[in-house]
Write a structure and sequence with these properties.
This protein is an alpha+beta fold. Helices cover about 50% and strands about 15% of the residues. The chain has 15 helices and 11 strands. A hairpin with a 2-residue loop joins strand 7 and strand 8.
Amino acid sequence: MNSPVGSHAHLESQVVALMGECERLVMARRDADARECLQRAEALLPAHPLVLHERARRLLMVGQSASATPLLERATATAPKHLPFWLTLATAYRLQRRYDDELAALERALIIDPLHVGALLLKAAVLDQLGLRRTAARIYGNALQARRPESQLPTALEPLVRQAERRVMESTDEMARHFESHLAGIRVGRTDAEMRRFERALDLMLGRKKLYAPAPTLMLFPWLQSYEFFDRDRFPWLSELEAATSDIQEEFRSVVEEDDEMAPYINYDEGQPLDQWAELNHSRRWKAYSFWQVGQFYPEHAERCPKTIAALRRCPQVDIPNFGPTAFYSILDANTHIPVHTGAANTRLTVHLPLVIPPGCGFRVGGETREWKVGEAWVFDDTIEHEAWNRSDVSRAILLFDIWNPQLTALERDLVRATKALLLDYYRDEEEPNVGL
């Protein structure tokens, strides 16, 4: 049997269409036409939740929140899964300072969409109003994390975004003071190495730093411990290297006085994708005096710097034909920045021995920034994003070289050597065997 034209289903579809048109007209600021659509829909189904919602919205616009509330309560009871109804009801409660009821309405909205940024911001604001400032800051943080840069929030919510950023920052500082006051006693007598992992965990929890993962351009060897800067205890030979600093400095000075063998460190052919290296490609603002470069030995340079070579040979340098070792004096000119980049493989680590360090120089690996100190070496994972800068008016110089990652077994080193040899062999007959060295 066919349904009569005036059936509820037919009326429902008419009302939905009319209210859709009403919403469009409201957005176009054609209020008289929008009001006419509402009246037509109301004549058909006066208790329809869309009709009730629009009537309530108009009452809220003229300050009649108490009259709007029962209409919205009826709308949410009829259509409990329609999120906009709960948000408007929360607004009505807020205007009447019924904060507990507002919070309950927002909770219902978040059951429908737990990551709704507007509902999260409003919930946090209510908690702030109720004096639950720490919980409010946590919810504000959830809202900021849920926000997507490409999505446009209503203009009315932008002040809440600024408030959220401010409150999260305040809460982080307050929480940090809370932890610091209670952890001071535990830190007494503990070494940096003992506390290092916990301190980073605390920084991550407080949002003071982020966690950076290795992102090598060629080979990621799994299940190796990853540190931005490794503890010195893993490298007992560092002290012997540092003891040779003055000899290495002397040889460096003799080389840099002539400067005829210094070559740009970034040296890509034309037509290759340069990305962040475009500015420094073929530039002597970052130059190198190489002893080994991806396994190629420079005997003339070694002859001029025998004490540097002797110090390097006492270190566990990478030894892979046509891949390693790499070792060179690295000279960064005044007012020069080495952009963010990552290395090729975490099977190796990188060592810096500072030789000439003017003020204004710095180095960041992941979430940790350090300043070089002459004669104090460090070891870092160059597959974690890193960058360097020299903001002084004179050049900075270090001895830079790579070593085996000490976590690799002897067998694993052999396998890495074999794999890289096979990789080179695979590309041997190609005109451009660039394999990400």
